[in-house]
Amino acid sequence: MHRNQSDDSRNIFVLEAENEEHTVAFAGALAKLAVPGTVLAVDGDLGAGKTRFAQAFAAAIGVRGIVNSPTYTIIKEYEGASLPFYHMDVYRLTLEEADELGLDEYFHGDGVTLVEWASIIAPILPPERLHIRLEATGGQSRKISCLPMGIEYESWCRRLGLQQVEEEGLRQ
Ligand SMILES: Nc1ncnc2c1ncn2[C@@H]1O[C@H](COP(=O)(O)OP(=O)(O)OP(=O)(O)O)[C@@H](O)[C@H]1O
Ligand SMILES: [Mg+2]
Predict the structure, then answer these.
(1) If you measure from the C-alpha of residue 7 to the centroid of ligand 2, how many angstroms do you get, rounded to a whole number?
(2) CB of 51 closer than 6 A to ligand 1?
(3) 95 in a domain, yes or no?
(4) If we measure between CA atoms, which residue out of 108, 91, 80 comes closest to residue 42?
(5) DSSP alpha helices (H): ranges in 39-171?
(6) Ligand 1 center to 8 CA (angstroms)
(7) For residue 4, what pLDDT band results from cuts at 50, 70 and 90?
(8) Distance between CA 154 and CA 71 in Å, rounded?
(9) In a domain, 104, yes or no
(10) Ligand 1 center to residue 55 CA distance, Å?
(11) pLDDT value of residue 22
């Protein structure tokens, strides 16, 4: 589908996290905006911090206890204080396998869904979602790039005070 220059969903917003605490703080700020049906599509290389980000987000919405990587279980459900939290890691799945799991009930459920390695299943993600890419730029430093799909998520990025940049560098 052709999308022209004025398509707002192409805007990218960036945060340079200097350390882990900074990533945790960003996850906390994002958690304050979360509502039922929020979908966070997280990508980044092995060890970039996807699970660490998910843990911080979960803690911020009041999930008690340990949030582990769901690499083998694919999906874990948690009860947060304000919202349920659905944590997925689709690293081991193909798009076809993921399609058969019926993930829509999570995406459109009462909670927040956070998907690690989300780009693998991009075609079956809901059209409105926030892509978050983590890239290691040093020992503890991470470039966090957000690509909002839909005006609601774009307004989140603006409210979070992220730096808006040209679209180059984060194509989904
Ligand atoms: N700024 C930072 N943000 C996030 N994690 C950081 C940061 N600095 C250091 N870390 C560390 O980097 C590691 C990230 O591991 P994590 O399991 O979150 O990566 P991942 O992206 O989920 O990897 P995988 O693809 O293997 O699941 C953790 O040990 C975390 O403590
Ligand atoms: Mg992980």
Answers:
(1) 31
(2) yes
(3) yes
(4) 91
(5) 50-60, 95-100, 104-107, 151-159
(6) 30
(7) very low
(8) 29
(9) yes
(10) 10
(11) 98
When the pLDDT of each residue in the chain is averaged and rounded to a whole number, the result is 92
Q: Is 1 in the pocket of ligand 1 (CB under 6 A)?
A: no
Q: Which residues contact 144 (CB under 8 A, 6 or more apart)?
A: 14, 15, 16, 17, 23, 26, 132, 133, 134, 135
CATH number of the domain residue 116 falls in: 3.40.50.300
Between CA 72 and CA 41 the distance in angstroms is 18
pLDDT over 50 at 63, yes or no: yes
pTM: 0.92
Q: If pLDDT is split at 50, 70 and 90, which confidence band does 72 have? A: confident
- Is the shortest distance between the CB of 137 and ligand 1 below 6 Å? no
143 within some domain? no
Residue 55 structural domain: 19-121+157-162
Please state which of the ranges 5-19, 73-87, 99-113 shows the lowest mean pLDDT.
Answer: 5-19
Q: Would 168 be classed as within a structural domain?
A: no
CA end-to-end distance (rounded Å), the chain: 13
Structural domains of the chain, count: 1
Kindly report the protein residue whose alpha carbon is nearest to atom 16 of ligand 1: 49
> Is the Cβ–Cβ distance between 156 and 35 less than 8 Å?
no
pLDDT at position 10: 72
